[in-house]
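pasting UPF0597 protein FHL05_00765 for the record, 425 residues
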Amino acid sequence: MKREFEKFIEALHEGVVPATGCTEPVAVAYGAAVCAKYLPSKKVDKIDVHVSLNIMKNAMAVMVPGTKEPGLQIAASAGALVGNPNAKLKVISKIKNSDLPEIKTLAHSGKVKVSLAKVDDDLYVDVTVVSGKDSVTVYIADDHTNIFKIVKNDQILYEKDRPKPHAKSALKLYMQTQKFENIWDFAMEIPLEKIAFMKKSADLNVALSKEGLTNSYGMNLGRSLVEDSGKATLENQILTYTVAASDARMGGATLPAMSNSGSGNQGISATVPVWVVAKENNSSEEKLIRALTLSHLTAIYIHAFLPVLSAFCAADSAAMGASVGACYLLGGDFETASMSIKNMAGDSVGMVCDGAGCSCAMKVASSVSSMYRGMKLAMKGIVVPSSNGLVCNDVDETIRGIGELGSQGLKETDPVILDIMMNKS
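structre below
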């Protein structure tokens, strides 16, 4: 097997993983659960949490799974009291109703303190749990589950090199050396059994869609689209199923999402539109798996040029992956798929992330609506010309430009957004 094919499979295994709830509060819950693992008593006297700007921004309004409440206090309490540290991003997926009184009592007791950490990291969490005379602190950076140090009673239990702020992993740096054509070739040529695991992304995220269409979550955007639709067009089906999954995830459903690049909404945006197109087109399971692989790996490739967290709403870049997968399912070739990415680059790219919450479903709707427009034009051979804005003749140059926008152009946007959020009257 070609070396880049092996690395692409590694990227899929690393970048496409199950996660229950918004990954920012879940990272805090995970840190708290690991703290509790090293404490002899489950009695919690105090929790101190320090997080980077983007963690704070993304945790203020989003529901913590199983609790029907938002915020890092409830996430930390749930993790410390009932979290499974071995489950990583599914750390609080098993909360029971009988657990809620204890979790909420702790969260609202004043014993759980949350503040901004004085760090430059895009993603940083430290959690200290105190129980009697014992205390444990867990330090996380660069990735939602990347623990780089654990300290108990001033004794280091575990330590590895702390990631440098804004550092990119070896795999992310490798993805930056690739071209979109290599990803297309991989998805077309790799033996099916090597990527069969990608079907799980559809299983998990479509289950979230059905949960969002069946029960009330957030703003019920998916359900309202069903009620308002005159007929079940392909565009409406894509919007309805994708948005409903985001409704459920951001509204506190305990079902896991299959994430992409550390985000459940990105995983949903890269998965559900592809599944809908496959369903409506009566595509074979092999075509669905190859389309999902193409979508998710394209989303990972584009995100390799973006910070792990930023003011750039990456639901849009994930939906670019879906546009590529949809083009393939509808008979498009590499050139068609490239045009679809360019069309989206000329559309809604640059939508800001103003924190996680029920309104994320609306941003997902905007992203997959752009995906549908970009894909439809590309299938007709129409592409935004390279004289326009971020669109370049070369698709890879276009993708790198999007990365530059997210990394440099929106750098000063995050502090402004958080300041507005924290100082509302």
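Residues 403 and 409 are 9 Å apart (CA to CA).
The mean pLDDT is 93.
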